Amino acid sequence: MNNIAKNRLLTTVVILLLLANMASLGTYWWTREKQLQPPPPPGNGGSAASDFLIKELKLDAKQQAAYQLLKEEHQQQTKSIRENVRESRKIFFDLLNKDAVNADELKKASEEIGKNEGQLQLYTFEHFRKVRALCSEEQRKKFDSIIQQVLRMMGGQQGGPPPPRRMEGDNPPPPDQMHDGPPPPDNPPPK
Predict the structure, then answer these.
(1) Which CATH class is domain 43-159?
(2) pTM higher than 0.85
(3) Which one of 14, 41, 143, 188 has the lowest number of neighbouring Cβ atoms within 10 Å?
């Protein structure tokens, strides 16, 4: 093989490798950008769960209208109780500011949280009982198989999955997006 033929072959191979590399990098950046899209804000868990229920149960237009009414009713019922839950947790953790806390005071504050959380769970249970009653027999079977998944999608109110772990150097979420309860310690205790 002469030098001109070798040079053409090498040039062709280099060009093909460069094109393959550019295609790989383009694919990597394109999929990476999709993966880096921020998750929906915390308040949208109910909306995602609602959309999921409608889709999975294949609710017809009449059922969807009834479901939307139930959803609005549930949101109205739980709005004040959610505020009570936040306030009772704040009061409970404000006890940390005291040098000495009476055991009865601590127990009373803890029981208030439990009472409010319990009321919230009862409202949610009753809401989903009504949603289930909207369903046909076939839809009820599907409802029964996906309700735990729906509750997880709704987030913290039903004891959903823990928040994703933050990597070292990540900033905590803004205060308006933090879950109720005490903030995590800045430096975990050594093991």
Answers:
(1) mainly alpha
(2) no
(3) 188
